[in-house]
Amino acid sequence: YDSEDSQYSDSSDEEWLPSKKTLDQCEIEPGVEAGKSVDTPAPPAKAKKKQQKRHTWKVKDSPCEGVLPDFLGEWSLNVQATEPLEFFLHLFPEELIDDITYHTNLYALQKGRENLNATAEEMKAFLGINLVMTFIRYPRRRMYWSSEQGLRLPLIADAMAVNRFEDILRYLHFTDTSSTDPGNDKLFRIKPVLDTLQANFLSAVDPEEFQAIDEMIMPFKGKLSIKQYIPKKPKPWGVKIWARAGASGYMYRFEVYRGAASTGAVSELGTAADVILRLCDDIQFKNHKVFFDNFFCGIPLITILKEQGIYGTGTCRVNRLQGAQAKLKSATELKEEGRGAISVVTNGEDVTVTRWLDNSLIHKASSCLGKHPTDVAQRWSKKDKKIITIDRPFAVKVYNDYMGGVGLMDQMVAMYPHRRKNKRWYIRMFFHFLDVTVVNDGLLPFKVTREVRLGPGNHWPQLNDIKNAQRCQDPACTRKTKYSCMCCNVAVCPGLDTNEGEKYFNLRVLACEEQ
């Protein structure tokens, strides 16, 4: 990461100047709605030193402190569907299935197999069989068609013969490689599939307010030039995929990493920051909050995102703080105050750096989050041999709440992955994104839209005759319940005094009365 760090480390100490004005004296512009951008006047012109723009930095919190509303998981679907299969066919349309069928037959013909003649219905059965194999796993593929009683799986065996299944898998293709000029595109073999899924993921639902950008790994140990080795990952060998996902885990954007030589021209921000800008080019000026880790984060990146109407928050490395570390309280001063001590500075462009002492020093850089409102976090104290509570800044709390979108998607894909051995990398990548499509499909039909949740109807709790209780969907509740809303069909605990369960139903009743 040395090349990335050098993009942010050169800075003058005079950019971060503490102010005598305390946080209590800092006024917030009245009339600003929650989650809306704050228009700040341009800072006065300053003299230049070493060709660096000088800013006035003040020991204060972010001007947008405390304005982020709680995430309720509300969706605005753009798909007219009711059944899971209908949602799936929007993300993975029949036109794509027809295209895959055509190129599979074409590739078989080019290889001398003239009588493959696969149909679109057979291709659907082929895809369905592969999906069933992800959650009903046998040691060997042919065991699904076994003649032994109790081992044969009729769901698969009756849908397609084993030889026909293996023939389609052998010639499965997604583009005409004989007439396509790959150029510098290392993904040309599967590019039509990736482009279609990318467009449909975005069109199915409006993006959530809180988004996270992170990397995910497609496990693969075969021969491939873009293969990566990341030792700290559960599957260290594989293809790196940059992804943008909502707090629900739904993946909106993705970009397969094709190597440093394939990224094209690199801006002054660096390769990592360019990834953030590319993945966020469709949510500009829509009041979205984007979270990322220290591989991407830097003060210039957050400033550029703010100019594009996107509020960025990330964990920042010390050598990317552009001199803010010299104006924050030192590690010695924070240790004297005790675990949970906080120090905050904000510049004239409303980029806030929060230094927090937990087990070690943590730096959060943000254009919308700072220290307040603080809450408490539980930690184990080795000295006192007990669990203690420490102060936690708002930036850390919100970051922890919404940074895990990509990890959640990765977790759900890893539960039932399609990882049958195949030396052809594009086949492995196809089935990986098929798993991603299934997860996105599952999130769409089981998420209630805002119109339904807040619209008229019988929003009353009903006791369901089920054996196993479901997890309460109230973010503040950790219980399981057998109650659900009669209209939304969402599991929520009724009449709770310690969380928002009762408030959930009261909001629905008020919505009905207003209608």
Automatic annotation (TrEMBL):
Limits of the PiggyBac transposable element-derived protein domain: 84-440
Pfam families: DDE_Tnp_1_7 (PF13843)
Chain positions covered by the region annotation Disordered: 1-56
Start-end of Acidic residues biased regions: 1-16
Skewed-composition ranges (Basic residues): 46-56
InterPro entries assigned: PGBD
PANTHER family the UniProt entry points to: DDE_TNP_1_7 DOMAIN-CONTAINING PROTEIN (PTHR47272), PIGGYBAC TRANSPOSABLE ELEMENT-DERIVED PROTEIN 3-LIKE (PTHR47272:SF2)
Name under which the protein is recorded: PiggyBac transposable element-derived protein domain-containing protein
